[in-house]
Amino acid sequence: MKIHNKKRLISFLRFKRDFQQYGLEKARSYELILHWLNNRLSRSQFLLLSGILVGCTAGLAGVLLKTIVHNIHFFITHKVHFEYQILFYVIFPFLGIVLTTTIVLTIFKGQDRKGIGAILYEIAQNSSIVSYVKTYSQIVQSAITVGLGGSAGLESPIAVTGAAIGSNYAQTYRLNYKERTLLLAAGATAGVASAFNAPIAGVMFAFEILLTGVVFTDFIPLVVAAVCGSLLSRILLQEDILFRFHTREAFDYRNLPYYLVLGIVTGIYARYFLIISQKVEHFMKELQMPRIRKAMLGGAILSLLCVLFPPLFGEGYDTVKTFTNGNTNSIIENSLFRYFEIKQWTIIIFLVLICLLKAFATSFTIFSGGNGGNFAPSLFAGGTVGFLFAIVCQQFGFKDVPVSNLVLVGMAGAMSGVLYAPLTAIFLIAESSFGYDLFIPLMIVSVISYLIAKWFSPISPELKSLAEEGKIFTSQHDKNLLFALHTGDLIDKYSQTINENAGIEELSNLVKNGNKNIFAVIDIDKKLRGILTLDDIRPYCFCTGNNAMPTLTKLMRAPAAFIHPEDKARDILQIFDNTDTWSLPVVDEENIFLGFISKSSILTSYRDLLRDYSD
């Protein structure tokens, strides 16, 4: 009993010491409890608890944002007469982008990095440390942009918000880089799961886009976070806010030709969407005008598009639900096309124009200063393309066309091609439509669209600029480019060596006449004995007498790690990250020194290879 009490006393004293060391005296009571649990629980247990807490918090953030935007849209589209709606379409989208830009410049000091690329940037370049400001800045900006009619989605801002929540939680409890990255991904997962009420799709999003190389034990916090986010969404959100589709046909294998063709159509459309996005982004960047004026220009263009085509207003999910219900006339009756006689050709022209202009509306919303993502626009555009494809098939005399199914799988196809995320698209639509029997057509359309997108560009154009700068490595990039690099081509053939029995004069000449700051110490058989750097030598450069430079065998040190010729570039980069070094020696099976390899040489070769692939 005394021994047990003594252990408890030691544990308490250590806990008190930690509080004093890290300045936790001012911590909130729940933070003290969690710090205590962090000391008491195992890593897996604390990560499981962390996944629950991060998932619930990110889920609540997603619910809050969806509720705010839904209520604004409902007021404009259901409570306001058509004539006044036009006035709102003129004013609100313009005002949304201008207000968002103003808030970014004045309150958030111009920091407006957004979208999935922002999360990947923080993982790769900032050790998964996300600013606390992003736990609320994305909600404020996207609520204003999309709530007032910006033609973008809320899912990317919700994902960034969840990532910030997970990262800051990990920072508070001083978790390491790997655990911090895991909870960052858990927050983003919970955000996506709450936005769509689709936990499996949230997990697929994390694995497919944010994380690579996680072990199975890390799978649990992601699942728990996704479930928490999805449950909160299901409990707190009303049915009309949820991303749910109840109308669909049963899968019939005889309809496979429809899905094969639709896969090609959505793949081509996804490429069109991305090209327009790139063109608009380049156009806005090249404009020599202040950001407020750019916002006014983008807002004016968006307002004009919303007046002409009201389905471009906001996320557009209600329009897609109308497509699945077959009530297209109600959409046209709320637009300027109401003044034309509504016939089949009127509907087709209307849908074609919506598909073509959606890419412009989304791009001007995002790149002129608004905040939003491509989740909702790709789903809206894909659903419209699927519905248009179904109507065209009916016009050509085909019978029993599965209209609602084509709308659903069209959404998955466009999302797969735009975001380069086929698994996320498949599970998202399957969960949202209760259409698990649609897995075959969902896989067909999503994979075809994804392959077409990959044929045009190996990695997502949204991430291309970051990848070219060496700031991020996407999972697609790791597989297609890093594995194409050969270790033998990365070794410095002019690495400098010195024999372990060499004298001080020889070492001085090597330093004086060479151009390296790291040297390999080898024996007579060219086997590596150790390494030297200029930092190791510098303290003895001007010393004499008893403080003179010691022998090389005493001065050299063992390298942090060894590289072997058969190692892959991606594994070598991981070794560099684990050892926090920039140069490492390459040796063969007999420890023969082959040269040094540096992290910069891998990054330089990667950028050159990426440029060749892109061209």
From TrEMBL:
InterPro entries: CBS_dom, CBS_dom_sf, Cl-channel_core, ClC, ClC-type_chloride_channel. It is a multi-pass membrane protein. Residues 556-613 form the CBS domain. Keywords: CBS domain, Chloride, Chloride channel, Ion channel, Ion transport, Membrane, Transmembrane, Transmembrane helix, Transport. The chain crosses the membrane at residues 46-66, 86-108, 182-207, 219-237, 258-275, 295-313, 345-369, 375-393, 405-430, 436-456. PANTHER family: CHLORIDE CHANNEL PROTEIN CLC-E. This is Chloride channel protein. It comes from Chryseobacterium kimseyorum.
